[in-house]
Amino acid sequence: MSPLGSQDGTCFRQREGFAWTLAAAREGPGLMNYAYEIRRQAEAAPRAALPAVTAALWKAFGEGHLSEAEAEALSGLIEAKSIAPTPVARPRKAVGSRPRTDASMERRRRWAASGRLPPGLAARFTVGEQAVLAIIAVETVKRGDCRLCHEHVAATAGVSRSTVKAALRQARMLGLVTIEERRLARFRNDTNVVRITSREWAAWLRLARSDERSAVPHQPGGGVKLVTRTNTPVSYAVNLEGWRERKGCRKATGDRSAGASPQMHEPGIQGISRAG
């Protein structure tokens, strides 16, 4: 049914109720019954039913059950109520659980999809609980255990504090983690120490860590530097003792008389000496 039809139906039922009220008022002892009933109905009726109250008012006035002064007073009351502004509902305060904002949902899904839990174990938790356990896994890989408070984990994972407690309770019940409570005083405790005891989960984290290390490329200027040799053809012998002796400026310009032996540059003298 359309909203207009439903509104018409509501007005029709209100009109029937006013007609029954006026009929009952006719049987009363005095004329004040009409004025009283119409005023009561006008004050209690919603804005959509005010036309029915107005029709009943003028019908009673036409039949002589209301005086002119009473009719004018009731008409002014109905008109004032019809033009009164509709009260605006106050926005609901965000109390109780953490509100579902876009940023919190994004953090929750990103941590849950980070792959910090094996698929078999992740299937036993909700998305919010997976995000909580992923943060605990990251802290365990970095420091050996997780000592973050519940509020810190909840704000990072985008969940509520109760979700953090439920995730840790479920993980401890399944034998995945151990929780050590650290009491400082009678009414004051330090943060709990959460340690991963599941062999499957620990092996999964070691495998994921080794994959991350192998996937990181070697940056130039850091770590081990690999030297790649280049095949450069040259017209002279490289790294020879004879070439190292010719590094002087005189020898480099081709002064053969200064560096060469007399036996190599005077073959005629060698022949004469041998012949003699």
Provide a quick synopsis of the model.
The chain is built from 15 helices and 2 strands.
Radius of gyration: 48 Å
Span from first to last CA?
A: 139 Å
Shape: elongated
Q: Which spans of ≥5 residues are poorly predicted at pLDDT below 50?
A: 1-12, 28-32, 257-276
SS summary, helix count: 15
State the total count of DSSP E strands: 2
Taken as a percent bin, the fraction of beta residues is 5-15%
H and E order: HHHHHHHHHEEHHHHHH
Largest sheet strand order: 1-2
Class derived from helix and strand content: mainly alpha
Mean pLDDT: 74
Molecular structure report:
With 276 residues, this protein is mainly α. Helices cover 59% and strands 5% of the residues. It has helices at residues 3-26, 32-44, 50-62, 68-83, 102-112, 119-122, 127-143, 150-157, 161-173, 199-215, 241-245, 249-252, 256-259, 262-265, 267-275; strands spanning 177-183, 189-196. Strands 1-2 form a two-stranded antiparallel ribbon. A hairpin with a 5-residue loop joins strand 1 and strand 2 (189-196). Helix 1 (3-26) runs parallel beside helix 3 and helix 8 (150-157) crosses helix 9. The radius of gyration is 48 Å and the shape is elongated. The N and C termini lie far apart (139 Å). The model is unreliable at 1-12, 28-32 and 257-276 (pLDDT under 50).
